[in-house]
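Sequence design from tokenized structure. All designs in this work follow the same two-part layout: the structure record, then the generated sequence. An example of the structure record is given first.
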């Protein structure tokens, strides 16, 4: 029957004197081949103590296999190596920094137009001619470097001034411009004292800006409403605009040019080929009016009142 797992066979006891003799014979054989080694022979007590320590360590490992070994400390050699490592760590470590933000290789390897022309030509290059390194020519600086003509700040100011001129009549009605001739009267009107007046003004100005960008219709116009209400709203707007222009003309104020809307004329649609020339079709029925019937009868009878025929 096989032995139980986890158990080890007992180690055969060795005679320390025999081990010492064997070591002595091996040393003599080694000294015969090589240079003698000056080593003091180990005493028997030291050999016996080492054997006893080995046997005790093996027994302890068999009994306490799950327990870890005790820490015996750090030897002198290890202390020396660690001290050397600490000395090496104390030395300053230089970090190498590589900058890839500026691609100097692409700028250096690019050929100028003159060099490219010489390279592509069939003639051999002239060694006496110096390579013309194309340096960027200094651009002509404007007279006023702080405010060039196409600066973004000036363009933004121009756009704001144009919008202010176009929307001045809306702002003056709201009393935003105290120097305007309409501001004193407009500030006391009921349209500006009611709630959300500023929101209505912003809505009007937004509508004007959208129309300036090319919108076909205003966002304030209502698409579907009764005809009489639409006519009243249009009439009120026309009277208001007419009154504004008349007051400005009397006070010597120059307003924007009036843009007249073109009246859309409905063109007569072309009739299909299969429709009859006389009357109108209603389903499968052709309806002819009395006027059309009289015209047809007149064409059949011919002209009248032109005199009698001669025989």
């Amino acid at each position: 029957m096989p032995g139980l797992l986890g158990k080890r066979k007992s180690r055969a006891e060795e005679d320390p004197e025999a081990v010492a003799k064997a070591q002595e014979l091996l040393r003599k054989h080694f000294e015969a081949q090589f240079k003698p080694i000056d080593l003091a022979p180990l005493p028997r007590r030291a050999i016996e103590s080492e054997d006893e320590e080995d046997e005790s360590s093996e027994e302890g490992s068999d009994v306490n296999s799950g327990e870890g070994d005790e820490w015996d400390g750090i030897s002198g050699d290890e202390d020396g190596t660690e001290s050397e490592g600490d000395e090496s760590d104390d030395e300053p470590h230089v970090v190498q920094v590589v900058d890839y933000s500026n691609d100097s290789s692409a700028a250096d390897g690019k050929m100028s137009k003159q060099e490219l022309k010489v390279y592509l030509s069939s003639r051999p290059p002239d060694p006496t001619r110096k390579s013309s390194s194309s340096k960027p020519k200094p651009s002509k600086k404007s007279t006023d470097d702080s405010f060039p003509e196409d600066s973004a700040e000036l363009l933004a100011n121009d756009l704001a001034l144009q919008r202010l001129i176009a929307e001045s009549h809306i702002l003056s009605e709201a009393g935003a411009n105290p120097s305007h001739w309409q501001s004193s009267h407009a500030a006391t009107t009921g349209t500006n004292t009611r709630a959300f007046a500023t929101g209505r003004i912003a809505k009007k100005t937004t509508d004007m800006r959208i129309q300036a960008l090319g919108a076909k219709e205003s966002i304030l116009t209502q698409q579907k409403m009764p005809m009489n209400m639409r006519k009243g709203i249009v009439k009120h707007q026309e009277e208001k605009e007419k009154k504004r222009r008349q007051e400005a003309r009397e006070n010597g104020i120059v307003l924007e040019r009036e843009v007249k809307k073109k009246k859309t004329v409905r063109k007569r649609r072309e009739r299909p080929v299969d429709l009859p020339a006389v009357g109108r079709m209603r389903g499968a029925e052709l309806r002819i009016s009395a006027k059309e019937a009289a015209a047809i009868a007149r064409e059949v009878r011919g002209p009248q009142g032109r005199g009698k025929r001669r025989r």
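The first strand starts at residue 280 and ends at 282. We note this feature because it recurs in several other targets discussed in the main text.
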